[in-house]
Amino acid sequence: MSRRTSDYDESDVRIRPSRRGSRPRSKDRPAHEEALPGFVTAVDRGRYTILVAAGVGGRRLPERVVTAMKARELGRKGIVVGDHVDLVGDLSGGPDALARIVRLTPRRSVLRRTADDTDPVERVIVANADQLVIVSALANPEPRPRLIDRCLVAAYDAGLEPLLVLTKADLTDPAAFLEHYAPLDVRHIVTATGASRFQGLNALQQALEGRVSVFVGHSGVGKSTLVNGLVPGARRATGVVNDITGRGRHTSSSAVALRLPGEKGWVIDTPGVRSFGLAHVDPRRIIDHFPDLEPGTALCPRGCSHDEPECALDDWVTSGQAGPAGASRLESLRRLLRARSGESD
């Protein structure tokens, strides 16, 4: 005869042991002391191409390229081209080998941009670069000074040294364009194609030696053509400019780091851009890159944007304390401030 529910008491209840076990979870993560360092050269849909140096970690292994994925303990931490990471797992570099990225080394520099000047989401383009190479054609397509100004602001904000590279000088004289940037004292290199293909390439090679250099520019300016000339075998796709729109076709779909011949440095080629949002840049930091003008801001009213009638920099320049180039330098500062705010000159 079965017992009724009311006949049971609490002594009849049996507690099933938990299948998860009684040992408390530890917050300690594996130390991964055997992890080897690597340099991220490409990123593609959650897979990372990483160069592991020869003989690191006491292992007699040749330099090799491995494919890796991000370990779960890194969470949402992003990894980009130029990052230095630590790896575990299969580091043989074979076609079916897959390693894991377990640590991200602190970055010494970060180049960012946003979709536009109102977008709060920052997009990290490259990490650990030394200089930003801003590539612009002098013709076909026409140069875009406002985009160049925005790239300069991004370079200054990231602590990168800017280098302006002008291509297609065989189509037009660069003198007038360079005069526009003379007050900013930006280094520049002029290149040309045609009968003397890659004229100016030797000067560019010297400027890149011993550095990690990021190439940026809008489509069709000859950026990938330059990279192919600098790194034989790079095989970066090149395109043509549309005769109707005057715009180039996107030929690079993702950033990639390429080592210069003789291991003399790295070139990071990035996809062509048509906009460069600066929502992440605090305009107050731009003045730091004008040491001849910065002392004059001490007399500015509170919250001065340095581009308004009450700005004390006008009197500072008029008095001659900013030097003979003070007026042109002040105009360049305000040009960059307007570029950051999205205003037209």
Keywords:
OB fold (Dihydrolipoamide Acetyltransferase, E2P), 13 strands, alpha/beta, 345 residues
Shape by Cα distribution? globular
Q: How large is the count of helical segments? A: 6
Topology order in helix (H) and strand (E) letters: EEEEEEEEHEHEHEHEEHH
Distance from N terminus to C terminus (CA atoms, Å) equals: 95 Å
The CATH architecture of the largest domain can be named as 3-Layer(aba) Sandwich
Description:
It is a single chain. This protein has about 350 residues and is an alpha/beta fold. It has three domains: about 35-105, Nucleic acid-binding proteins (OB fold (Dihydrolipoamide Acetyltransferase, E2P)); about 110-270, P-loop containing nucleotide triphosphate hydrolases (Rossmann fold), CATH 3.40.50; about 285-340, no CATH class. The protein contains six helices and 13 strands. The chain has helices at about 145-160, 175-180, 200-210, 225-230, 315-320, 325-340; strands at about 35-45, 45-50, 65-70, 85-90, 100-105, 110-115, 125, 130-135, 160-165, 185-190, 210-215, 255-260, 265-270. The strands form three sheets. It has a six-stranded mixed beta sheet with strand order 10-9-8-11-13-12. A five-stranded mixed β-barrel has the order 1-2-3-5-4. A hairpin with a 6-residue loop joins strand 12 (about 255-260) and strand 13 (about 265-270). The longest helix has 16 residues, at about 325-340. It is globular, with a radius of gyration of 27 Å. Mean pLDDT is about 85; it is low at about 240-250.
